[in-house]
Amino acid sequence: MRIRHIARHLGAFLLTTLIAGLLGATLVRFGPGFETDEQQLDPRLNIQSLQALRESHASERRLPAFYAHYLVRMATGDFGVSRSLDRPVGELLSERAPVTLRLMGAGIAGGWLLGLALALPAVWFRAPLFDLASTALSGVFLCVPSAVLALVLFFANGPVRFAIALLIFPKVFRYARNLLANAYTQPHVLAARARGLSARSVFLRHVAPWAAPQLLALAGVSLGVAFGAAIPIEVLCDFPGLGQLAWKAALARDLPVLVGLTILIAAFTQLTNAASDLAIAACTREQA
Amino acid sequence: MKRARNIAAGVLILIFAASLLAGFVAPAPYAAQFRDLVSAPASRRFWLGTDELGRDRWSRLLYGTRISLLLAPAAAMLATFLAVVIGGVAGYAGGWCDRVIRRVIDLFLSLPWLFLFLIVRSLLPLDATPLTSVIVTFTIMGLVGWAPAARIIRAGAQSLRNSDLVLHARACGCHGLRLVLVHIAPGLKPVIFAQFWIAIPTFILGEASLGLIGLGVAEPLPSWGNLLRELANPQSVMSNPWILAPLAVLVIVVSCFQLLLPEREFVS
After folding, report:
1. Nearest to A279, CA basis, from A227, A195, A218
2. pTM summary value
3. Closest-CA distance of chain A to residue B36, Å
């Protein structure tokens, strides 16, 4: 059963990455500037040479052959060469990915810590004033663009990485607070409390395992939110990460870079979603 | 809570009305440049001062509010329409159609929509006229922002398809378009409305982020996004705190939309 589950996720991962690859290839094929070659502008080339150059692109005109060629190249890790930066796309991605991963990692960890640190007391102590204050605080951060938060932290010489945390924490706080409040009203939790179990035992043995699968699902979603926020933050605060690369590629209409990024992000998100799904399945099985 | 919602609705109506009447309320056209009063502080003539080109910030804020407040709901409507069509078809048809659409939804959800926007924007000319840039910005937002809503509408349509109500209607000989329009669509209405309402603040914040990185509405047309670009200069924020006015309006409007969100069960 477990192997089937993993195989299903693997299949979904491969299929989604393949679709992303095909979409990327479509972008390159139908994007502006396809088939143009700087060599064609060389005045020293005669008509025969120009004809030969054009014929070298002939295979790319036939769509099935183009897709097959593109996907084979992609499978071997060859994403082509960046038009604007004149460097292999794979090299650019591997160089910049650690910066974005660090930014996102710190942001996601900070957001979750802050969100849970506010949600747990709100549910445990049920103090209306604390609940109101934390809800208002999370509400304010829900309404401010991530880029503005990053600018404020940047100019205040604060940790810019925390801008992603400030964006993620309201979502975590609201979701976790509602989920935990709901967990404490479950019959098995009420029964455990009625039998005199300590608050710590009730939380660790009955509330946390009940809420864990849904919180894990939210953890999977956090990744997409974090990357979306990383784009303007990296652009405005000059972080040489994938977000800044995507922005530069969009401005320079550098399709090979955008396609490489699309595949990388789709694959990465699918992998983390699959990991979160498998963790959820493991949690549910343990409870059963 | 009801009181807070009423206040939020009132504030939204007030801001919306002021922006709609920008032509009458604004003391100057949004592109008018007072070259002898460049970067002027707030005064009786210029309530929020002037920017580095001598344009009245208050007038630009009013016109910018109009653009953001009119076009974000339009983009939300487009995204919701696509979500209804795609999610509705997947949920109602089921089978291979559902599986294929679910995969496409998964793909769109695995890519942050701001990144999707960058990809699509890169295919379009960057030297577009301001009006084209407004239309392109919000249309692309609508075209790439449908996936989260489609997933929820698909789930709603699927559960309705398997409900006793629809089963009964089928047994009575109701099929095809009539079944969809008379029995399924009314049941989906609250979910669709909630998704539309959620999308508006998302698109407002999205346009603000895009404007800040220079890929939103093109100058000289004002929008909250390009008005916020002045915040990138910390010295001017310190000396002219009224530069923060667009941010304040943005936060107030998005807060009002958040307060007016429908019941949680229709949201997720």
Report:
1. A218
2. 0.84
3. 30
Q: Scanning every residue of chain B, which has its alpha carbon at the shortest distance from the alpha carbon of A32?
A: B123
- Min CA distance, A276 vs chain B (Å)? 14
User: Counting beta carbons within 10 angstroms of the beta carbon of residue A29, is it exposed (0 to 12), middle (13 to 18) or buried (19 or more)?
Assistant: middle
Distance CA B71, CA B145 (A): 14
Mean pLDDT of A184-200: 90
Pull the structure tokens for residue A222: 């956090």
Select from A255, A249, A248 the least CA-distant residue to A28: A255
Q: Which of A140, A224, A262 sits opposite B119 (nearest CB)?
A: A262
Over residues B33-49, mean pLDDT: 88
Nearest residue of B to residue A141, measured between CA atoms: B251
Please judge whether A269 and B111 are an interchain contact, meaning their C-beta atoms are less than 8 angstroms apart: yes
Mean of per-residue pLDDT scores for chain B: 87
Q: How far apart are CA B128 and CA B117, in angstroms?
A: 16
Looking at residue B264, what is its pLDDT?
53
Q: What is the mean pLDDT of residues B176-193?
A: 87
| pLDDT value of residue B75 | 94
Q: Which of residues 192-231 of B touch A (CB under 8 A)?
A: 201, 205, 208-209, 212-215, 228, 231
- What pLDDT is recorded for position B196? 93
Do A236 and A154 form a contact (C-beta atoms < 8 A)?
Answer: yes
Taking the C-alpha atoms of residue B150 and residue B257, their distance in angstroms, rounded to an integer, is 21
Q: Could you tell me the pLDDT band of residue B63, with boundaries at 50, 70 and 90?
A: very high
Residues of chain A contacting B106 with CB distance shorter than 8 Å: 12, 16, 270
Number of Cβ within 10 Å of residue B238's Cβ equals: 10
Q: Nearest CA to CA, how far is A242 from chain B (Å)?
A: 10
Instruction: Please report the pLDDT score of residue B268 as a whole number.
Output: 46
Please give the pLDDT value at position A100: 93
Q: What is the 3-state secondary structure (H, E, C) of A137-195?
A: HHHHHHCCCHHHHHHHHHHCCCCCCHHHHHHHHHHHHHHHHHHHHHHCCCHHHHHHHHC
Residues 6 or more apart in contact with residue B77 via CB below 8 angstroms: B142, B196
The contacts of residue A107 (CB under 8 Å, 6+ apart) are A161, A162, A163, A164, A165, A167, A168, A226, A229, A230
Q: Which residues pair with B56 in a beta bridge?
A: B50
The band of B12, judged by pLDDT with boundaries at 50, 70 and 90, is: very high
Name the residue with tokens 């559902």: B98
